[in-house]
Design brief:
The protein is α+β, with helices and mostly antiparallel strands. The chain has a domain of 209 residues: 2-Layer Sandwich (Ribosomal Protein S5, domain 2). The protein contains twelve helices and twelve strands. Strand 3 and strand 4 form a beta hairpin. Helix 3 packs across helix 4 and helix 3 packs across helix 5. It is globular, with a radius of gyration of 21 Å. Bound molecules: alpha-D-galactopyranose.
Length: 394
């Protein structure tokens, strides 16, 4: 990863003007998977991996973006990038990395933020790509902060998160919830963030200093733009529609209970019933987990993670063989309180809560065990919970 000074120097070398720098972190979700788009609860933390955007305003109506990670540059008019880009995505074009920053410009423009004069941008980051650690949200939020920084507008973090989510939903075409963009904006060092995704309110849950968050990357690629995520969302909505016929006050699965499922679940196709059971039980687990953190009850927190993984694996069917191997291995390691698949699923990473003193041995055992079982070399990261998106002063 380039240093901030190196990104600034690269920006200057490309465009011959200094750029202002902004950073936004990726995230790891400790518990609360696939609950955000049913108005539910999630408990993610921002991580020490981030995307940095350098920006300078232009006057010629062009958008120039240099992606350091993809080693590619684009140079388009605002109209080509935003309007033609939007139309071609709707017509079925494959998503390109530049669609994420373009989507944010599109969404900000829709909100009345001036973008027509154009920008020069440099984007670099170290959030692992397609690993379920929200590299996309970090690009979106860093871009939004960068563009807003060229104006006198000061939008609240929640609004920035919503505009970035809109970019991903309406422009890129991935139906994600609000969790990733929200925690990228509102993360707090050494804290998990318990987000109420209906009211967009949050409470901080301190991560006890005796544990570390260890992330194991299965190296099996995960992408929200893939079809499975949108299929799951549709199944959840189908289930909520069925329950709403009986209890009209059920706006989203957040309002439903296991008792509702016991009464009316038989009207649902078997897969829809399972998906709903995951979401409803997961919301209860998130609330219990935030309490467990507050009272430093790591054993209970770990139990909830274990239950959450089983539910995500068997009811939501969002796991895969490699992830299950990582979780089973982790559960056998000394000092590991809990392990589960994190993020959208179908590959990506596991999140593990490990006693600080055991992290080294844990990391070695996981790398060796996973390599032996699958022939794949896992990447393993230890991260503190980090702060949210911010301007960088050099
Ligand atoms: C992805 C989405 C989030 C959330 C998770 C699953 O990360 O972007 O909104 O739905 O999957 O919990």
């Amino acid at each position: 990863m380039l240093t901030h000074a190196e990104i600034a120097a690269l920006h200057f070398a490309s465009y011959n003007v200094p750029g202002a720098l902004y950073a936004a972190p990726g995230r790891v979700n400790l518990i609360g998977e696939h609950t955000d788009y049913s108005d539910g609860f999630v408990l993610p933390a921002a991580i020490d991996f981030a995307t940095v955007v350098a920006i300078s305003p232009r006057t010629d109506g062009r958008i120039l973006i240099h992606s350091v990670n993809y080693e590619e540059r684009i140079d388009k008019s605002v109209h080509e990038l935003l309007d033609d880009g939007f139309a071609s995505l709707r017509a079925g074009r494959k998503v390109h990395w530049s669609d994420y920053p373009a989507g944010v410009l599109w969404s900000l423009r829709e909100h009345g933020v001036p973008v027509d004069n154009g920008f020069s941008m440099t984007i670099a980051g170290n959030v692992p790509l397609e690993a379920g650690l929200s590299s996309s949200a970090s690009v979106e939020v860093a871009t939004a902060l960068a563009v807003l920084g060229t104006t006198s507008l000061d939008l609240p973090p929640t609004k920035i998160a919503l505009l970035c989510q809109r970019a991903e939903n309406a422009f890129v075409g991935a139906n994600c919830g609000i969790m990733d963009q929200f925690v990228s904006c509102c993360g707090q060092q050494d804290h998990a963030v318990m987000i109420d995704c209906r009211w967009l309110e949050y409470q901080l849950a301190p991560i006890p200093p005796t544990v570390r968050i260890v992330i194991c990357n299965s190296m099996v690629r995960h992408t929200v733009a893939g079809g499975e995520y949108n299929t799951r969302r549709a199944e959840i909505e189908q289930g909520a529609d069925i329950l709403r016929k009986h209890r009209p006050e059920i706006m989203a699965l957040r309002d439903a209970t296991v008792a509702d499922l016991a009464k009316w679940g038989s009207e649902m196709p078997a897969n829809v019933l399972k998906r709903c059971r995951h979401v409803i039980t997961e919301n209860t687990r998130v609330l219990a987990a935030a309490d467990a953190f507050r009272s430093s009850n790591l054993t209970h927190f770990g139990d909830l993670m274990r239950q959450a993984h089983i539910s995500l694996r068997d009811d939501f069917e969002a796991s895969c063989k490699e992830i299950d191997i990582l979780v089973d291995l982790a559960n056998k390691q000394p000092g590991c309180f809990g392990a589960r698949l994190t993020g959208g699923g179908f590959g990506g990473c596991t999140v593990n809560l490990v006693a600080a003193a055991n992290v080294e041995a844990f990391t070695e055992a996981m790398r060796a065990g996973y390599g032996e079982a699958t022939g794949i070399t896992a990447e393993i990261y230890t991260s503190r919970a980090s702060g949210g998106a911010h301007a960088i002063t050099l």
